[in-house]
Amino acid sequence: MSEVMKRVLGRSGIGVSALGMGCWAIGGPWNFLGTPAGWSSVDDAESLRAIQHALELGVNFFDTAANYGAGYSERLLAKAFKGKREQVVISTKFGYEVNEAAKEVYHYDAGEEDSDVASRLRDSLEDSLKRLDTDYIDVYLLHVGGLKVEHALNTREVLEEMVKEGKIRTYGWSTDRADAVKAFASDAPHCSIVQQQMSVLDGSMDLLQLCEELNLGSMIRGPLGMGLLTGKFSPTTTFAQDDVRRHNTWHPAFQNGKPSQDWLNKLADMREVLTSGGRTLAQGALAWLWARSPMTVPIPGFKTVAQVEENCKAMQFGPLSETHMREIEAIIGRQNG
Predict the structure, then answer these.
(1) Is the pTM of this model over 0.90?
(2) Is 59 exposed, middle or buried (0-12, 13-18, 19+ CB in 10 A)?
(3) From CA 72, how far away is CA 65, in angstroms rounded?
(4) Average pLDDT over residues 35-56
(5) CA dihedral 96, 205, 202, 177 (to 10 degrees)
(6) Which of 74, 272, 289, 324 is most buried when burial is the number of CB atoms within 10 A of its CB?
(7) Residue 54 burial by CB count (10 A; 0-12/13-18/19+): exposed, middle or buried?
């Protein structure tokens, strides 16, 4: 196997494969505030084979959350990494009430303020440590993207203490708000990561620029547009009742439970460039992110060995060329400078 692409998670200095594995889908069905938030049914045996294959192909970075499967994704990773913990870098997230038995996730507070996150932080960490069957977490992320900055700041002192105690190695925030990240990462020596939504067709360039300015690693969620950028969907594609894409209200790739025609049109326009050099569409979409910034580490989701293999092969092709980046900018009018 050729040398695997590597990146560093910002000022944490933690080295990882340039591609991570997003472990939301393998958590199986669960509900967030009563609405399906999983990716329909899963095959645990296939999930475990897929994780093992990712390791064989050089991937050492895996992102999960207490929410995913209402704790089930974390438990599945514990099985996969038994006896291999030192070989992997694990990211997980906190900020919500998780009911494993009911497969339900809620806000801590009755409303959506989640002002109680800081006081629940240590319990959340211990719960994740138990589910992951580990005594430390490499990357610990605040999962409440819309949390008020003052409430987020209340978690920082606790997070810094956790680093000193060896419970976590670094921390950050999963949010798309550049102003919030700037406040949260300032005067925080061990805050070094942002998880942001981004793909060739969406995302905050201001936040990515801030990551470059502050030396923050940019973990990219939704790098394949929740699957739309693989080219496998049509305007008539439908999803199961327990598939989050059927209920999506926040991601522009899907509207009213179906793929966005605007995104499908733009993908068709970019197809030739993204598939240059023998890449698949998915591999081209990942290559765009690597070319866009040295801070980016995309974490596409997966449910099968075949998906892992296709995504990992993107590292063999590497980033898109400057010429191809300019061609995409011309096609979709997106600034890449």
Answers:
(1) yes
(2) buried
(3) 9
(4) 98
(5) 20
(6) 74
(7) buried
